[in-house]
Design brief:
One of its GO terms (cellular component) is cytoplasm. The chain is an alpha/beta fold. It is built from nine helices and eleven strands.
């Protein structure tokens, strides 16, 4: 009897890149295989948003042969990976443990389905379309950054913020909202990760609300003053974590390997002390 051989790092990379071609990534991005022997066997993959000491510890603990991360570890150039540096220590630990590392970032953001589709699904949005349609080699077939959709029923900004906070992975950050608490919300734009640069797209889409992460004070204030959509600001990690479930299912179905999704909250903000305010009207 012939025993099936487990897939290799090369096989996992091929499965990922079939769905998220590296050519779809932004020019500034750094995606693909970061480290690992191409012919090494892969029996278990850990899917994470961030490759940080805690998720590397998790990979070792669960016996993963490979980490697939959303955020690049080496986004900016380095001149050394010596273990005296933060990134160097992570790389040395991964190599010693025999764990490969792969990154799918903006190529997964623009894919259809991609990162923002998973976020939209958490909110129950339907009739999805791209917030900013992709251009160039990634154009077509519904690809693009962010998603615009419709809620199953109209709600208020207060209730939408509360629902988003319960539907997204829990973080100390939670969900902040900007706008009239009782504003009626039917159409919503979402963007996994930092969506500050797509505020104008949300305005152009004519949505009632825009949910993303890393919104800044002055742009948010200006768009609200100009009659823009209500804004919901969630933790960066929380807006991208939902995609890991889709990624894990894809790899499991394509290769028959064991996949583990990391629920370790890698958002840097670990404490939230709310101000004392009166209860908002609903």
């Amino acid at each position: 009897m012939t025993v099936a051989q487990p897939p290799t790092v090369t096989d996992v990379v091929a499965a990922i890149e079939e769905r998220y071609p590296p050519a779809w990534a932004e020019d500034w991005d750094r995606v693909g295989l970061v480290l690992g022997e191409p012919e090494a066997s892969v029996r278990r993959v850990l899917c994470v948003v961030d490759c940080v000491p805690e998720t590397v510890d998790e990979a070792v603990a669960v016996g993963a042969d490979m980490i697939v991360a959303h955020h690049p570890l080496l986004l900016r150039g380095v001149s050394s990976v010596a273990p005296t540096t933060y990134k160097g220590r992570l790389i040395h630990r991964l190599i010693r443990a025999g764990i490969a590392l792969y990154t799918a970032h903006t190529n997964a953001d623009v894919a259809n389905p991609g990162v923002s589709d998973a976020l939209a699904a958490r909110l129950g949005l339907v009739e999805l379309r791209p917030l900013r349609p992709a251009a160039g080699v990634a154009a077509g077939e519904g690809r693009g950054t962010g998603r615009v959709g419709r809620l199953p029923q109209t709600t208020t900004l207060t209730l939408l913020a509360e629902f988003a906070a319960s539907a997204l992975p829990a973080t100390a950050w939670g969900v902040r909202a900007a706008g009239a608490p009782g504003r009626k919300i039917t159409t919503v734009a979402v963007c996994g990760g930092a969506g500050d640069s797509f505020l104008a797209d949300a305005v152009a889409a004519g949505v009632d609300a825009y949910l993303t992460a890393d919104l800044r004070h002055h742009p948010a204030s200006e768009y609200l003053a100009e009659g823009g959509p209500a804004l919901l600001d969630a933790a960066h990690w929380a807006t991208e974590r939902p995609w890991l479930d889709d990624l894990a299912t894809q790899l499991r179905d394509a290769l028959g390997i064991d996949t583990v999704v990391s629920d370790l909250d890698t958002d840097p903000w670990t404490l939230h002390a709310p101000s004392q305010t009166e209860e908002l009207p609903r």
